[in-house]
């Protein structure tokens, strides 16, 4: 029996399509505009097509030292990704049993997610300023600052990525079949072997998803970095600084370059997840299927 | 269950040579292992979230001069913030006006994202039958979330600017003679950009609640003679309520503390709760910034408490 679709389907389908257009339309506009000709301006119509503005970014003669900011953001993103994956998987394993302080950790994560970013950022900046003052007063008068990319900056980003990582781990273990581990144990596997050869392969697609969240959230992070990053800027901070003085399309070119990295990471991650899921489906187990 | 421990204790352990290890007599207690597993994350939250919050509260009661913090008790951060609030009555003081404006923006964005988010989630959950399509379309909505917010903001410039697509289009059709100025760097563009950025946070939790609704409940409502509208109001909305509340909490807290979207899309001209904090920090008035942060935190906390009365968040995850 094949039923016709109700009229509400078509109305909502059009609504959904309009939403997707609303999501992507403006972004596509700036990707196109970043290929403006050398004489081109900030708006349509295009004044010729060239890679002039993108090339200008990489020459380093433009408004920002793109190369340095790019490397900093990439380094921070990769460190955040690794730390997020390791800590989230570990904590996710812990949450499968009852333990003291379980609800403290849970509520810390939720609070960290919803306390306005500017407050967290200000707090971290105050914390490091006070640490600096203490070091200057008691140990070393010439001490500059302990704030930096991989101290306060890393911490600020982790307060944003770890809650997502933990919530994804909850979702993973909600549909994980513990009998698989029991079977491994019955066959004489050590706890580490059980994790390495049974649990990890099954949850791997979702763990890659956590990595994807970790990197992209850090790569594009702005609000938490704003006060806590110290003297140097990340790429999004440079981009935000440019918005007040936009006069030509190099801001679009920068936007396109940042997005290109995001899309590369997203494609790689989703591709890997897809391949892993395929392999899992081919080899039988469906315990870790779905998700992300 | 002592994976992490064993990993640390014997990193060189070759998989497969476990027979010797299995016989290892000393077993770590489960609660100690839990601590090792969850401890690192707890430490990160302690060092970079909980202690900083404590510092915000402490510093809000410190004194300050033009260029530095003075660690002595003072209420100046707060008195500066509420300056003129009593003297100017019945006129509203700056801080009250700013919070009213922030709440207004917040309400507008909340109402619009809820409307869009609800129907997008509804479409995905009830009208898209194939799992593959459901996956694909959800992914389509998620991808922009993984790209930069600033880029998604400046993306509106070529469309809404004075010489942007919208204005040129309207001029060509003869609907207007002069470019419309309020399209960009206005409250309109702020709300538009916030909706553009954060509808995602509504779609995901509402969708999550909706896919859990047992389809036979809807059939039962239909069999009992309920109209589509009655099913929506009496069955679907009550069951999707947890998702609606969680999404609302996300959107409201983001907009309450936002200073970047309001700054960029408002042409740095619109005052908002988060913006005050940024301005104070830039002026190196940290206690005043901290006092404002405490006020913002209190108001956000109040809103969340009110909303979480409606639903137990922990149960829904």
From TrEMBL, chain A:
PANTHER family: PUTRESCINE TRANSPORT SYSTEM PERMEASE PROTEIN POTI. PROSITE patterns: ABC_TM1. It holds the Pfam family BPD_transp_1. This is ABC transporter permease. The keyword Cell membrane applies. One of its GO terms (cellular component) is plasma membrane. Belongs to the binding-protein-dependent transport system permease family. CysTW subfamily. It is found in: Cell membrane. Keywords: Cell membrane, Membrane, Transmembrane, Transmembrane helix, Transport. It is a multi-pass membrane protein. InterPro entries: Bact_Polyamine_Transport, MetI-like, MetI-like_sf.
Automatic annotation (TrEMBL), chain B:
Residues 99-307 form the ABC transmembrane type-1 domain. It is a multi-pass membrane protein. The chain crosses the membrane at residues 41-62, 107-125, 137-160, 180-207, 244-266, 286-307. It comes from the Bacteria. Belongs to the binding-protein-dependent transport system permease family. CysTW subfamily. PANTHER family: INNER MEMBRANE ABC TRANSPORTER PERMEASE PROTEIN YDCU-RELATED, INNER MEMBRANE ABC TRANSPORTER PERMEASE PROTEIN YDCU-RELATED-RELATED. Pfam families: BPD_transp_1 (PF00528). This is Putative spermidine/putrescine transport system permease protein. One of its GO terms (cellular component) is plasma membrane. GO terms for biological process: transmembrane transport. Keywords: Cell membrane, Membrane, Transmembrane, Transmembrane helix, Transport. InterPro entries: MetI-like, MetI-like_sf. It is found in: Cell membrane.
């Amino acid at each position: 029996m094949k039923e016709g679709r109700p009229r509400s389907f078509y109305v909502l389908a059009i609504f959904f399509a309009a939403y997707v257009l609303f999501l992507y339309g403006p972004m596509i506009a700036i990707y196109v505009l970043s290929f403006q000709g050398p004489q081109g301006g900030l708006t349509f119509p295009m004044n010729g097509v060239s890679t002039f503005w993108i090339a200008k970014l990489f020459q380093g003669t433009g408004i920002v030292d793109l190369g340095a900011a790019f490397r900093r953001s990439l380094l921070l993103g990769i460190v955040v990704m690794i730390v997020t994956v390791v800590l989230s998987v570990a904590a996710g394993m812990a949450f499968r049993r009852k333990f003291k302080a379980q609800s403290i950790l849970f509520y810390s994560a939720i609070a960290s997610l919803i306390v306005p970013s500017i407050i967290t950022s200000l707090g971290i900046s105050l914390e490091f300023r006070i640490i600096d003052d203490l070091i200057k007063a008691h140990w070393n008068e010439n001490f500059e600052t302990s704030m930096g990319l991989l101290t306060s900056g890393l911490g600020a980003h982790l307060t944003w990525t770890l809650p997502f990582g933990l919530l994804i781990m909850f979702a993973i273990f909600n549909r994980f079949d513990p009998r698989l581990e029991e079977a491994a144990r019955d066959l004489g596997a050590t706890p580490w072997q059980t994790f390495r050869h049974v649990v990890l392969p099954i949850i791997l697609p979702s763990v890659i998803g956590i990595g994807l969240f970790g990197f992209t959230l850090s790569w594009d992070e702005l609000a938490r970095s704003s006060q806590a990053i110290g003297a140097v800027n990340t790429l999004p901070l440079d981009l935000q600084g440019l918005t007040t003085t936009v006069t030509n399309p190099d801001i679009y070119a920068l936007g396109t370059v940042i997005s290109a990295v995001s899309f590369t990471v997203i494609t790689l991650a989703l591709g890997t997840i897809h391949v892993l899921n395929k392999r899992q489906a081919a080899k039988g187990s469906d315990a870790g299927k779905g998700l992300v | 269950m002592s994976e992490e421990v064993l990993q640390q204790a014997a990193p060189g352990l070759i998989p497969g040579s476990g027979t010797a290890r299995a016989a290892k007599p000393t077993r770590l207690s489960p609660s100690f292992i839990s601590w090792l597993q969850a401890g690192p994350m707890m430490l990160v939250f302690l060092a970079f979230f909980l202690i900083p919050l404590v510092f915000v509260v402490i510093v809000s009661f410190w004194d300050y001069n033009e260029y530095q913090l003075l660690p002595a008790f003072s209420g100046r951060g707060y008195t500066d913030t509420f300056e003129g609030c009593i003297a100017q009555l019945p006129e509203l003081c700056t801080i009250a006006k700013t919070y009213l404006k922030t709440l207004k923006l917040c309400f507008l964005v909340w109402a619009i994202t809820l409307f869009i988010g609800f129907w997008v989630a509804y479409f995905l959950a009830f009208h898209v039958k194939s799992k593959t399509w459901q996956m694909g379309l959800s992914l389509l909505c998620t991808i922009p979330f993984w790209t930069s917010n600033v880029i998604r903001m400046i993306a509106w410039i070529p469309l809404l600017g004075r010489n942007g697509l919208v204005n040129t289009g309207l001029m060509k059709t003869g609907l207007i003679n002069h470019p419309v100025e309020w399209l960009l760097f206005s409250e309109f563009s702020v709300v538009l950009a916030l909706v553009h950025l954060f509808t995602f946070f509504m779609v995901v939790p509402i969708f999550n609640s909706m896919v859990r609704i047992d389809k036979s409940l809807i059939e039962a409502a239909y069999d009992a003679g309920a109209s589509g509208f009655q099913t929506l109001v009496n069955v679907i909305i009550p069951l999707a309520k947890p998702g609606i509340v969680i999404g609302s909490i996300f959107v409201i807290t983001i907009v309450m503390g936002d200073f970047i979207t309001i700054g960029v899309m408002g042409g740095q001209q619109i005052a908002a709760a988060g913006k005050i904090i940024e301005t104070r920090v830039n002026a190196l008035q940290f206690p005043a910034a901290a006092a404002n942060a405490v006020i913002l935190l209190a108001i956000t906390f109040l809103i969340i408490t009110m909303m979480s009365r409606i639903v137990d968040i922990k149960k829904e995850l």
